[in-house]
């Protein structure tokens, strides 16, 4: 009996209807499920007792013998009816059926006399309210209008249009309204067709534009648009949102009325009727809105489920419609009240029942309702309970370990402990709803659990369940304990120089600070031991200006957050007011683009300064070099083995070293194609210190003939051993007898005139 047949469900539900006065009315209700099933009826929420006027048939339907809109005692058979069915599994309630009496009012708009010239357009209208909607027909001279005449257009709302008028169209018109309640006739109106067809030009004009309509899906909408003008205007339709109207189910009635059959929600929108003068851009427009409603219908029905005691049951019910339907849940036919145990989420689409017990076993219904209609669906919750399950764990205790840790301990159940496979610890902030609860599994041999990553100064609730392969025990007693408090974390601090006597301390609010009451700000001159402060600031303050400072010293600024547990660690920054405004010595607020531009400007200035200095030195050297009226100097006689001449320091020519350095610099400059000089080249341009000369002298004099061939040796020689060489691309001198090579001749280029 756990199949579909055990679920109590409706096969046929009562539907909306319009009843005729003094006529019988039958409301149908058919249910399937496990017998015995009891069916009862309600009207407007009140139980209907069998009487001569209303009683239940054997098949469960309700029979009203003589429907009356108003009875002698003031009661009425109109209202909302629903059917209830119950068996030992639960109770279900059908959708509400709205029952109304058939009526027809008097005409509130009658046709009016009209005089129209030949070739023009005539329009008659009559309106009347009724349930159901009356059908309106037109008569001319007491005879039904010939609807086969294409110049005659009858619209459903009681409008008669006659285009291209002729003399024979003159006559007396009236309309006849009919429904199941009555038949009524309107007043008569005379149509007179005068004169002949005019050829005078007339601008396009819309006589009647579309009305705003609210209809239900699958109905038919007629948007009226009748226009006049000479020449006859062309009527066209469009949507204001630019979307295409489409062609399926679209039809044009008469000369410009738009009819949309089998409406859908997508047909909703604002429609624009335009009357255009042929061959021109002259036009007139009128617009009306169409709202298409859709009754509530289910996208996802709730499903019957079976769950063990102590677990969570979830039902999902998703409905759609236009306007969006409201969802209501019933439990055995009664409105479901939410609590810590029962929660509704996602606009009531999800029903969650936590920690279920046998009392939660019932039939749950989802009712979806909007202005266009209602529907319902049901599902049953079966609570599984096995004999021999463990009793609840005993002696649950919780002890605070730190600001973020609590240790929970317990004792094993008193009964049925052999089949226990483990325990589940249920954890929740005491202030949170039950759906925020989370669990931690523990082995069967463990009777304590360290719960970490908790929030400081927060109360938590704990309870334990013992689990077997057949289900869970009932929950233990709930214990509540709070974590310890802790001081706030370090705030982030930034210092900004406002002017020569003022700095601004700013910091950012952050959840990482934890619970705090406010901030304390201290500052002092770095050479002093005592701080100024504390300056107490509220927790919502994020900036403070420190004024009347001395621009000639460095200041230390300290900020910390505090709460009832004490002061947190402080953040320290140093600042000097000597620098330019908005720059700090340490940890400034970063204006990355500005700093990058400043760095680029400063670096560029240094490079330009070095270039200018080097250029001045080079010109001085060139001036000295050409002061001896020589261009390039080289050794005149190359010995078989080159060695540094041993001459007294007083006779040594410093100029020779300078010239050699300049020559090498010229070569390097040409090799590097004008690239920047490095610092080594700058050093070569300056004569070495005496100690360096002595070291160089020793090194040169002891240089081995077997030195590498690619090493350039620079010697200082007297002027009488140099000769002037005219510029020419001479090859390097050969190395006789394999001795060490002399310094290679520099690459010659055009000589500079002194």
Automatic annotation (TrEMBL):
Gene3D superfamilies: Immunoglobulins. Pfam families: fn3, I-set, Ig_3. Residues 738-754 have a biased composition (Low complexity). Residues 392-486, 487-583 form the Fibronectin type-III domain. Residues 643-654 have a biased composition (Polar residues). It is found in: Membrane. The chain crosses the membrane at residues 606-626. GO terms for biological process: cell-cell adhesion. One of its GO terms (cellular component) is membrane. It is a single-pass membrane protein. Keywords: Disulfide bond, Glycoprotein, Immunoglobulin domain, Membrane, Repeat, Signal, Transmembrane, Transmembrane helix. CDD domains: FN3. This is Immunoglobulin superfamily DCC subclass member 3.
């Amino acid at each position: 009996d756990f199949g579909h047949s055990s679920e109590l469900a409706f096969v046929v539900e009562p539907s909306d209807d319009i009843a005729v006065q003094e006529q019988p009315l039958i409301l149908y209700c058919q249910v399937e499920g496990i017998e015995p099933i009891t069916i009862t009826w309600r009207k407007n929420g009140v139980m209907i007792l069998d009487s001569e006027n209303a009683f239940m048939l054997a098949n469960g339907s309700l029979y009203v013998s003589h429907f009356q809109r108003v009875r002698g005692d003031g009661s009425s058979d109109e209202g909302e009816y629903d059917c209830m069915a119950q068996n030992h599994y639960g109770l279900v309630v059908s959708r509400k059926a709205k029952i109304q009496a058939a009526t027809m009012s008097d005409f509130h708009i009658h046709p009016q006399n009209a005089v129209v010239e030949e070739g023009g357009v005539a329009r008659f209208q009559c309106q009347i309210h009724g349930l159901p909607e009356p059908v309106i027909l037109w008569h001319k001279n007491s005879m039904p209008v010939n609807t086969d005449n294409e110049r005659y257009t009858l619209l459903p709302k009681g409008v008669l249009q006659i285009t291209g008028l002729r003399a024979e169209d003159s006559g007396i018109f009236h309309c006849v309204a009919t429904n199941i309640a009555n038949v009524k006739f309107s007043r008569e109106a005379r149509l007179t067709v005068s004169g002949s067809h005019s050829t005078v030009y007339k601008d396009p004009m819309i006589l009647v534009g579309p009305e705003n309509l609210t209809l239900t899906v699958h109905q038919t909408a007629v948007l009226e648009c009748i226009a006049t003008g000479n020449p006859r205007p062309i009527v066209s339709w469009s949507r204001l949102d630019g979307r295409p109207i489409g062609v399926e189910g679209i039809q044009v009635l008469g000369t410009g009325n738009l009819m949309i059959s089998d409406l859908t929600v997508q047909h909703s929108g604002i429609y624009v009727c335009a009357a255009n003068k042929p061959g021109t851009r002259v036009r007139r427009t009128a617009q009306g809105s169409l709202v298409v409603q859709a009754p509530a219908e289910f996208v996802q029905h709730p499903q019957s489920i079976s769950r063990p005691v102590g677990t969570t049951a979830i039902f999902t019910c998703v409905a759609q419609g236009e306007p969006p339907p409201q969802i209501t849940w019933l439990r055995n036919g009664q409105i479901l009240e939410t609590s810590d145990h029962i929660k509704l989420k996602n606009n009531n689409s999800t029903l969650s029942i936590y920690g279920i017990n046998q009392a939660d076993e019932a039939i749950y219904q989802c009712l979806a309702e909007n202005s266009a209609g209602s529907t319902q669906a049901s599902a049953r919750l079966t609570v599984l309970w096995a004999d021999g399950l463990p009793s609840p764990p005993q002696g649950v205790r919780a002890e605070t370990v730190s600001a973020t840790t609590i240790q929970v301990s317990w004792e094993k159940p008193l009964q049925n402990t052999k089949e226990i496979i483990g325990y589940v610890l249920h954890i929740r902030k005491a202030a949170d709803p039950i759906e925020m609860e989370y669990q931690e599994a523990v082995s069967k041999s463990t009777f304590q659990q360290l719960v970490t990553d908790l929030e400081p100064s927060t109360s938590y609730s704990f309870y334990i369940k013992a689990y077997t392969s057949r289900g869970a025990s009932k929950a233990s007693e709930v214990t509540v304990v709070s974590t310890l408090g802790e001081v706030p974390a370090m705030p982030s601090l930034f210092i900004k120089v406002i002017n020569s006597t003022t700095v601004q301390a700013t910091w950012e609010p952050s959840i990482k600070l934890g619970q705090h009451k406010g901030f304390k700000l201290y500052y002092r001159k770095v050479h002093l031991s005592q701080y100024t402060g504390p300056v107490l600031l509220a927790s919502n303050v994020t900036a403070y200006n420190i004024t009347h400072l001395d621009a000639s010293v460095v200041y230390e600024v300290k900020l910390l957050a505090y709460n009832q547990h004490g002061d947190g660690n402080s953040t320290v920054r140093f600042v000097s007011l000597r620098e330019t405004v908005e720059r700090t010595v340490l940890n400034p607020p970063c204006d990355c683009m500005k700093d990058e531009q400043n760095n680029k400007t400063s670096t560029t200035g240094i490079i330009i300064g070095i270039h200018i200095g080097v250029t001045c030195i080079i010109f001085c050297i060139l001036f000295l070099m050409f002061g001896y009226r020589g261009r390039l100097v080289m050794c005149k006689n190359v010995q078989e083995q080159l060695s540094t001449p041993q001459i007294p320091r007083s006779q040594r020519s410093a100029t020779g070293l300078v010239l050699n350095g300049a020559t090498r610099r010229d070569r390097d400059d040409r090799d590097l194609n004008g690239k920047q000089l490095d610092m080594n080249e700058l050093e070569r341009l300056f004569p070495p210190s005496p100690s360096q000369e002595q070291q160089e002298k020793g090194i040169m004099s002891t240089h081995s003939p077997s030195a590498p061939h690619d090493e350039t040796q620079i010697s200082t020689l007297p002027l009488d051993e140099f000769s002037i060489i005219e510029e020419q691309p001479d090859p390097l001198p050969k190395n006789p007898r394999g001795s060490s090579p002399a310094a290679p001749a520099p690459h010659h280029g055009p000589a500079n005139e002194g």
